[in-house]
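Researcher: Re-running this chain for the archive, since the previous output was lost when a drive failed. Same request as before.
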Amino acid sequence: MITIDNFEIGLNKKTFIIAELSANHGQNIDIAKNTIRAVKQTGADAIKLQTYTADTMTINSNNNYFKINSGTIWDGRTLYDLYQEAYTPWEWHEELIKYANELGLICFSSPFDQTAVDLLESLNVPAYKIASFEITDIPLIEYVATKMKPVIISTGIATLPEIEEAVQACKRVGNEQIVLLKCTSSYPAKIEDANLMTMKNMKETFEVEVGLSDHTPGSTVPITAVALGAKIIEKHFILDKAIGGPDASFSLDFDEFKQMVQSVRNAEKAIGRVSYELTESKKNSRLLSRSLFIVKDIKKGEKLTEENIKSIRPGHGLAPKYYRKILGNEAIDDLKKGTPLEWGMIK
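Model: Regenerated structure tokens:
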């Protein structure tokens, strides 16, 4: 069983819904705290930070190796410049985690190097998230896994063998608290690229819980993922898209995120459990089904025929499956048109 704080992943009927803060704070801690408060109001279960600095991610270089040119919304910028704008100041972490916990939100983060893990350990986060672009950093994954806390791994850029290597990195140090997230590492991602059946296959292949880290517009893909067995949904959240920033275009605002949460909760109710029992509502509805009725007056001793007995709605008489069996039987008494047929009426 995987438990993040007090939330049981998989055994809990609720999907673990994570709001990703990412860069959606505009380097203003008040916006960050207001965002956390708004996340709580959406009904989400957790808020997730990202723990890095520009210097722990890359070097400050303008040569072509460090310029983004891969068809993203950030093309033309250097990596250092992007991360300098997007990072969450480390001195905020303790305050933000404490604030989230006071509101009843679980708070954890994605570390991007060992120093980030050390910071988060000092703040006693309940879980770790490995970002898609770090899935090939096996030493980082091993180091995270040694903390013996749940490790949630996004798989957005990974091949099947690379996912296997990441899973084995955790298991090698004795940590089997692993959740794999299907992810399409495009920003924003196209719905047709979600390929959610891959999520189900990962569960079968690696025998772990699975979920979705989503960058598509709206909530169609998360809802579908829940129907297919996702136990975690992660989605970027922004208080107001007017804040702008590197991630604003593929983040959900308050109303959108709240609607997604409500839709996921409704999907959970719809999935329910295996059941063939008849509820009171179903029993009442059965009265609208067909049954055998007398459709023409029948005299005592007269035979039941296709002319005087029919299968019609409502369902107060014998079941239609007895139709052939009762034809040719005689009426014990006079039977009036519109009367449901019962065994005691014939011989």
